[in-house]
C-alpha cells in the first residue's frame, strides 16, 4: 500500500499543506515541525517512494560512524557524541548513529540511500573503508583520528603537545627516570603522545638524542598491552610491569592505562606516588575514581564534537577541495598520583 501525504498528516495530526511545505523545503512550518515531518515520512516509507524528496530529507541528517567496541571503552567518546548531537541540532540536523566493525564493514543504508548530507567518523577507521565512504561523494570529517594514506578533514587533540607538556611537568617535579606505558600499535594518538614524551626527554636533557632510544627501551612498555587494558586483565599488566626495572614515573598513554597500571602496581605492593608516580591522558572520570586520583592531560572533548560538526557543515555548504586538520590544545590537571 502506497503512503501518501494524507497518511503522514494523519499520523502527526497536522494539515496536508504542512506536510507538503516541509517535504518541499518551503517556509511556513517551524524547524522542529519540519524535522518531525521528515522523520515520520522516512519511517513510513514515503521518502523511498518519492525519490525527489531525498535531497530535502538529506538536508536534515548527518551520519555518525563509530566502531562498536568504542561503546564499551569508557566515558571519552560518550562526551564527544553528546556534543556532536547537540551541535548538529543547533544547525538543524538530526544525527544518525551507526556502529561498525572495521574487519567486516558494511556501508550504512542511510549513506547508500543518500539520506544524509555528511558523515562524521568518530575514532579509527581503515583507509580502505574511508576511501569507500569518500567515493559515495558525501562530505566526511574524521573525529579524534587521521589517515596518513588518504587525506581527509579531521579534528584532533594536540596529542604531541600533551605528551611533551606532561613529560616536561614531571621533569620539573624532579623525576629523573621517566617511562612511557602504552601500546603504540593501538592508535595514532598514542604514537603522537609518545613522540611528545620522547621530544621532552631530549629537550630537558634527561637523555641525549643519541641515547634516547635505549633509554626508552630500558624504562618503557610499548607493545602488546592494549588488549589487556580493554579486557581489564590486571594480572597480565602485573606481568608486563615485572618484566623490567620500574622507572620513577610512568607516563601512560591514556587514563584507562593509568588506572590499570595503578591497580597492578598496588597488587605488586607498591604505593603511588611514594614508590612510583603515574600520569594519564584525557581527563575522564576514571581519574577521580582512582586512588590516588590521577594527574592527567585534559582533552577538550565537548569542543572536539562541536568543531567537528561545524567543519562538516562548512564542508557540506562550501565543498572546498583542500582537506583541513585542526588540533585542539590541552592542559595539565594536577591530582595526587605524582609527588608534590
UniProtKB/TrEMBL annotation:
Q: Which SMART domains match?
A: HTH_LACI
User: By its UniProt entry, which InterPro entries does this protein fall under?
Assistant: HTH_LacI, LacI/GalR-like_sensor, Lambda_DNA-bd_dom_sf, Peripla_BP_I
Q: Which UniProt keywords apply?
A: DNA-binding, Transcription, Transcription regulation
- SUPFAM superfamilies (alphabetical): lambda repressor-like DNA-binding domains (SSF47413), Periplasmic binding protein-like I (SSF53822)
Keyword flag Transcription regulation: yes
* UniProt-listed CDD domains: HTH_LacI
This entry's Gene Ontology molecular function terms read:
DNA-binding transcription factor activity; transcription cis-regulatory region binding
Residue limits of the HTH lacI-type domain? 3-47
Pfam families according to UniProt = LacI, Peripla_BP_3
Name this protein carries in UniProt: Transcriptional regulator
Amino acid at each position: 500500500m502506497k503512503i501518501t501525504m494524507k497518511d503522514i498528516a494523519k499520523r502527526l495530526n497536522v494539515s496536508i499543506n504542512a506536510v507538503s511545505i516541509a517535504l518541499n523545503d518551503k517556509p511556513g512550518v517551524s524547524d522542529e515541525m519540519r524535522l518531525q515531518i521528515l522523520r515520520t515520512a522516512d519511517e513510513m516509507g514515503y521518502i523511498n517512494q518519492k525519490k525527489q524528496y531525498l535531497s530535502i530529507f538529506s538536508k536534515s541528517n548527518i551520519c555518525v560512524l563509530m566502531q562498536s567496541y568504542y561503546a564499551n571503552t569508557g566515558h571519552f567518546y560518550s562526551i564527544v557524541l553528546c556534543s556532536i548531537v547537540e551541535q548538529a541540532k543547533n544547525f538543524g540536523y538530526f544525527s544518525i548513529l551507526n556502529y561498525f566493525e572495521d574487519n567486516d564493514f558494511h556501508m550504512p543504508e542511510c549513506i547508500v540511500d543518500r539520506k544524509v548530507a555528511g558523515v562524521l567518523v568518530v575514532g579509527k577507521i581503515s583507509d580502505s573503508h574511508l576511501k569507500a565512504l569518500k567515493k559515495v561523494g558525501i562530505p566526511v570529517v574524521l573525529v579524534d583520528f587521521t589517515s596518513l594514506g588518504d587525506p581527509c578533514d579531521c579534528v584532533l587533540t594536540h596529542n604531541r603537545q600533551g605528551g611533551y607538556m606532561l613529560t616536561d611537568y614531571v621533569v620539573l617535579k624532579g623525576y629523573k627516570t621517566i617511562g612511557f606505558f602504552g601500546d603504540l600499535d593501538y592508535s595514532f594518538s598514542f604514537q603522537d603522545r609518545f613522540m611528545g614524551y620522547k621530544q621532552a626527554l631530549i629537550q630537558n636533557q634527561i637523555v641525549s638524542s643519541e641515547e634516547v632510544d635505549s633509554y626508552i627501551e630500558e624504562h618503557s612498555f610499548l607493545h602488546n598491552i592494549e588488549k589487556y587494558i580493554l579486557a581489564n586483565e590486571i594480572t597480565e599488566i602485573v606481568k608486563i610491569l615485572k618484566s623490567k626495572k620500574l622507572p620513577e614515573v610512568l607516563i601512560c598513554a591514556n587514563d584507562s592505562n593509568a588506572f590499570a597500571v595503578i591497580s597492578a602496581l598496588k597488587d605488586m605492593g607498591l604505593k603511588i606516588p611514594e614508590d612510583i608516580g603515574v600520569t594519564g591522558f584525557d581527563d575522564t572520570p576514571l581519574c577521580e575514581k582512582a586512588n590516588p586520583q590521577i594527574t592527567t592531560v585534559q582533552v577538550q572533548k565537548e569542543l572536539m564534537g562541536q568543531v567537528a560538526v561545524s567543519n562538516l557543515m562548512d564542508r557540506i555548504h562550501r565543498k572546498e577541495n583542500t582537506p583541513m586538520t585542526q588540533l585542539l590544545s590541552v592542559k595539565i590537571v594536577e591530582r595526587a598520583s605524582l609527588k608534590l
